[in-house]
Amino acid sequence: MADWRHALSVFRDRLGYVMGRAPNNFPIEDYLPPDKQMNLERAYDRLRLEFQDFVEAFGSSPETAEWHLAIEDSYQFFKKGESLAGKQRLNQLYNSLWQVKKKKGS
What we know:
The chain has 106 residues and is mainly alpha-helical. The protein has one domain. 66% of the residues lie in helices and 0% in strands. The longest helix has 19 residues, at 40-58. It is globular and about 40 Å long. 20% of the residues are buried.
C-alpha cells in the first residue's frame, strides 16, 4: 500500500493542475492526437483516479466522503457552465487538504 502522504501530494498536485486549467484552458500537447488531448472529462478522470489512490492509502472517513463530493460538485458546476462556482469548490477542497492528518492508531 502506498504511503498516504505521497498519495496526498500527488492528488494535491493534480488538483492544482485542474484548478488552474478547468474548464477549457488545458494546453495543447503537440505529441498527442486530438482525441487524446487533455480536456475537462479527462482531467477529472485523472483527478478521480488519484483521489482513489489517496483514499486507498489513507482510509475511508467522513472527510474523504466530503472531499469526493467536492470533486463531483465542482465537475457538475463546470459542466453547467458555472466556472466560478466550480473553481471555488475546488479551492475549498484544496485548502482543506492542507489540514489532513492521519489519526493515531489508523
